[in-house]
Write a structure and sequence with these properties.
2 copies of one chain form a homodimer. Chain A is α+β, with helices and mostly antiparallel strands. Chain A has helices at residues 12-21, 103-109, 116-141, 146-161, 172-178, 183-195; strands spanning 25-29, 34-36, 44-50, 53-58, 64-70, 75-77, 87-92, 96-102, 165-167, 199-202, 205-208. Chain A has 6 helices and 11 strands. Chain A binds a DNA duplex (30 and 30 nucleotides) through residues 144-147, 171-173, 181-189, 191.
DNA sequence: TTTTTTTTGTTGCAACCGCAACAAAAAAAT
DNA sequence: ATTTTTTTGTTGCGGTTGCAACAAAAAAAA
């Protein structure tokens, strides 16, 4: 539990106290189960302790479409969903454990002298980090060509690791999804970059070549 | 000031008190002026009261590149920027008025009985709304073809307005930038959609045709 | 009102990219 | 250790899209 972002820098005593004070409930869900429905009218908040859940939209034909995915540490719930006026639900996309609480409880909890400030800071940190992740991805997605998307992404990794040689944090298949391009077209472009002497790539290790 | 998201549902008395308590400073900047530099080490926070500012990265060649843009109501600062290890600055991209405060002050302010909870809720709301905007844009950007990007965006507007006929909230030029596609290619695709009887478009009014 | 700037609309062309389909390699599961 | 699943690597083809370049319309500024 201490490895969950929202509980960063809090002792297990604090966490226990938080769970009691905020009247949290911990529940597990099998893949495919509905965790929340009718999201819009709900003040309920969920925190992903384990697994992966999806925010899905149900249109008037009853078709499900994935709106976003929440991973370990992420916070979700009515107050954290968008302003559209259709039905939203949360379903478990993997076997998941969820910690439930209430938005108002969470806000009120901030008044606690021992852990209130830290909890609040953690929640903000969580949201800000999500914003930054999205921001990074948008920066990459707005590049026009696959080559530019790849190079932009590689440059970000270069800065993150402070090295011109780094490991990709995902499979090439996942990378093509992240970049929203066709995998085979991406593979072709990687080959071109290699042939043009701009990068080296062996497995997941990428090296940028400056000359 | 009451129309700024972070001050939603607060009286002008509250706002005055907040500004005093959090030791805020209000400053104006001409276009091009540097608002913050050396962002990373700073606990300083800015709120855009008027205008528009840019978060820019300065690489080792001294080249500026835009990382993100903050509009009226947005919060920016070191604690709200990413985890890369390069120099970041905030510059005014238009004539702007900024309210400055300190991250720790803001967190501490939450303890105030009168406006603490509301202020906290507003800050969260602000962050969550940004996440949702980004989320929406990513949903659109990850569509593979210009046609699919347009239709996805139109469907979002359809839901937002609860109508198959709506006004575009921006110029076509701006839309092409939002979708990260070439403007003329987008224009061509709009024509195709019209010819295929899928949409009507006159100026900024778009109507989706279901048959 | 006139001038200037921005936006819209259009087209040819070449490069780019998605798609389909497959084989080999690697990883995960049994 | 063997089977199954996932990932990687490759290619031809045709549709899509970025680019350049321009004219007309609309909006904003003078």
């Amino acid at each position: 539990m201490e490895n969950i972002g929202i509980f960063y820098n809090l002792t297990s005593n604090d966490i226990e106290d938080i769970i009691k004070t905020l009247k949290c409930r911990k529940l597990s869900f099998k893949k495919g189960m509905t965790i929340m429905s009718n999201l819009k009218r709900s003040n309920e908040i969920g925190i992903v302790l384990d697994g992966e859940v999806s925010l899905v939209r149900i249109d008037f034909y009853g078709t499900l479409s994935n709106v976003s995915t929440y991973y370990i540490g992420d916070i979700f719930g009515g107050k954290f969903s968008d302003d559209s006026n259709e039905e939203l639900s949360i379903i478990a996309s993997k076997q998941s454990t969820i910690l439930f609480t209430d938005y108002n409880q969470l806000i009120k909890g901030q008044l606690n002298k021992t852990w209130g400030e830290q909890l609040n800071e953690n929640i903000m940190e969580q949201l800000v980090s999500k914003i930054n992740n999205y921001n990074t991805r948008i920066e990459v997605l707005t590049k026009k060509t696959i080559r530019d998307k790849l190079l932009e992404y590689f440059h970000i990794l270069e800065k993150r690791t402070s090295s011109t040689s780094f490991m990709l944090p995902m499979t090439l298949t996942a990378l093509s999804e992240y970049l929203a391009v066709d995998r085979s077209a991406m593979q072709r472009e990687l080959k071109n970059l290699k042939q043009d002497g701009i990068i080296e790539i062996n497995g997941k290790r990428v090296t940028l070549i400056y000359r």
